[in-house]
Amino acid sequence: MSYNFAYLDEQTKRMIRRAILKGVAIPGYQVPFASREMPMPYGWGTGGVQVSAACLTPDDVFKVIDQGADDTTNAVSIRRFFEKTAGVAVTEKTAEATVIQTRHRIPETPLCADQILVYQVPIPEPLRFLEPRETETRKMHGLEEYGLMHVKLYEDIARHGEIATAYAYPVKVEDRYVMDPSPIPKFDNPKLESPALQLFGAGREQRIYALPPFTKVASLDFEDYPFDPSKAAHPCALCGAEDSYLDEVIVDDAGGRMFVCSDTDYCASRRDTGEAA
Amino acid sequence: MALSAPSVTDAMGGGFANPPRDAAIAFRAALGVMARPGLIREITGGHPPLPLSPAAGSLLLVLCDPETRVYLSPSCDTDAIRAWLRFHTGAPLVSAGQADFAIGPWAELAPDLPLMRKGVQDYPDRSVTLIVEMDHLSPKGARLTGPGIKDEAWLNLPDIAAFAANARSFPLGFDTFFTAGDHVAALPRSTRVAGVA
């Protein structure tokens, strides 16, 4: 074997593990880490992959989802990567997994204690599009100076009549740090308060952050414009679920479309157990 | 005959039998307790010289290397432990004020606590992690609330006032592992601490 367990060398894993522990100790705060080149391009989940590599043990059962689906290219290749380099068991069932790496979704099936959810994060800094300088955003987090973010949300209301941010909707963690939950739909934001440990890895931006179980996570809003985790006003066309996040799928050249669960495991298990309408 | 030969040979023992696998399993124990303050878990694989516990030794093997500065409290600062740590981790030994990791019983670490690194406003992660050696760990004594805890948890902290003050200085502060035998628990700075009512 020409590579170490879970691909990364031990010193790299120690560095990532130290960053993860500080992230867990300071919920919502972005810990810098020395992100490594991985055998996949930035944007394909190198941050999540490095966090998973630092956390996996040979006894883990590993699941990977991309936009809720287990069978997309990104999910399949990352799952195979750790199947080969760490020798871990893999699954598509949310309830069977001990470590779940995700791109842009939180599974519909409620997570439990002892599960770890690892997010792939493209841009970890929630203030980045408001203030491009890292030195300044560091200060803003340090001073808890988040007025600019509320101005941005207010301008949404002034222009669109509602807060138009639909994904990567900013949250405040334990009344202290404003955090980017990665580009999950805001529908998933209420699930950020979870019995599971949630770890966030941004490879290109070299940041790791975390939400310990049961951490208080509040989506930013205003008293007269409360947070609304909206969803499409349809049931799933395949399983009939009315409580899941839906993808809109174009089915022909005539503009025909259907709404189906984005979480493929949730949808398939509902159909298997006959819960489908 | 080299006088140092026996201690060098001793120092070479007591590491992980299978470093990648043992370190991964030990890290998950460390991560589990840091994410759930008050939880007590087994952590094994390291066999450091006495008086260090196997749990403290395992944490050092998981987390320390030439990039981390380590402080040994007076009772842990023995030739055998220095040699063991140098062989297995290569970590530089420093004074309490410079340390990334500080190891020892609470009574020896507490006086130096004001000197230790608590992080800075922009980088609160640049702070010490304590590994506090205990006689035993039990889920009673101080009442813990905060991130990682559903309602409340309990842990026999060696000092309630110091850890309560640490929580009040959030996001600056230090984070702590407690070790006894082959068991570990943790208290991050985010945990609010109260004495028994």
Report on this model:
The complex is a heterodimer of chains A (277) and B (197). Chain A is an alpha/beta fold. Chain A is 26% helix and 18% strand. Chain A has helices at 10-25, 46-55, 73-85, 134-142, 147-160, 264-272, and strands spanning 31-32, 61-66, 89-90, 99-103, 116-120, 171-173, 177-179, 197-202, 207-211, 217-219, 246-250, 257-261. In chain A, the strands form 3 sheets. A 7-stranded mixed beta sheet of chain A has the order 1-9-8-5-4-2-3. In chain A, strands 7-6-10 form a 3-stranded antiparallel beta sheet, with no helix packed on it. Chain B has 197 residues and is an alpha/beta fold. Chain B has a single domain (18-196), classed as Rossmann fold. In chain B, α1 packs across α4 (79-89) and α2 packs across α3. Chain B starts with a helix and ends with a strand. Mean pLDDT of chain B is 93; it is low at 1-7.
Topology at a glance:
The complex is a heterodimer of chains A (about 280) and B (about 200).
Chain A: H1 10-25, E1 31-32, H2 46-55, E2 61-66, H3 73-85, E3 89-90, E4 99-103, E5 116-120, H4 134-142, H5 147-160, E6 171-173, E7 177-179, E8 197-202, E9 207-211, E10 217-219, E11 246-250, E12 257-261, H6 264-272
Parallel strand pairs in A: 2-3, 2-4, 4-5, 5-8
Antiparallel strand pairs in A: 1-9, 6-7, 6-10, 8-9, 11-12
Chain B: H1 5-12, H2 19-35, E1 41-42, H3 54-63, E2 70-72, H4 79-89, E3 101-105, H5 106-109, E4 129-133, E5 142-145, E6 153-155, H6 160-168, E7 175-180, E8 183-187, E9 192-194
Parallel strand pairs in B: 2-3, 3-4, 4-7
Antiparallel strand pairs in B: 1-8, 5-6, 5-9, 7-8
Helix pairs in contact in B: 1-4, 2-3
